[in-house]
Design brief:
Length: 150
């Protein structure tokens, strides 16, 4: 899948760029396996834990946008009736974008575990490697606390 390889390369380049300019890359740099979900829903916040309002959230397939929505006042988003393989994206706002490969509705485990996506978008000067996407609320909350330690 050439598009996936291009995205993986871009993520690695972005992480190196963040480190080069002295911005710590707190997000996931390693390319992980797709997240398996029963449905696509969750929250987008900045590194302070403040909801990101009206951010564009898309599901891309084969290099084109298959579905599009925006976050509400609580930073929440959801997609209805989604099945298959996608690239989940939160577009750049004043914050960095976030990207993660997902597989929706194909495994029994995904139906047993109704995971949500918890997205922390990094500083606007970073690329998507400075953002983080979690399916665990406790890991998400721990990351917010770690990002706000002084």
């Amino acid at each position: 899948m050439p598009a996936g390889n291009d995205i993986r390369k871009a993520i690695v380049i972005a992480a190196v760029a963040c480190l080069y300019v002295g911005i710590p890359a707190h997000g996931q740099v390693a390319v992980d396996k797709p997240l398996h979900l029963a449905r696509v829903a969750g929250y987008v916040v900045n590194t302070a834990g403040t909801p990101v309002v009206d951010a564009e959230v898309t599901l891309d397939r084969d290099g084109t946008v298959a579905q599009r929505t925006r976050t509400d006042r609580a930073g929440a988003f959801h997609f209805d009736h989604i099945m298959g393989h996608y690239w989940f994206r939160v577009a750049r706002t004043q914050n960095a974008p976030a990207v993660r490969e997902i597989q929706v509705g194909d495994l029994i485990e995904s139906y047993l575990e109704r995971k949500k996506l918890y997205v922390i978008v990094g500083p606007g000067a970073c690329a998507d490697a400075c953002s983080s996407i979690f399916t665990s609320k406790s890991e998400f909350e721990k990351a917010i606390k770690n990002k706000n330690r002084h």
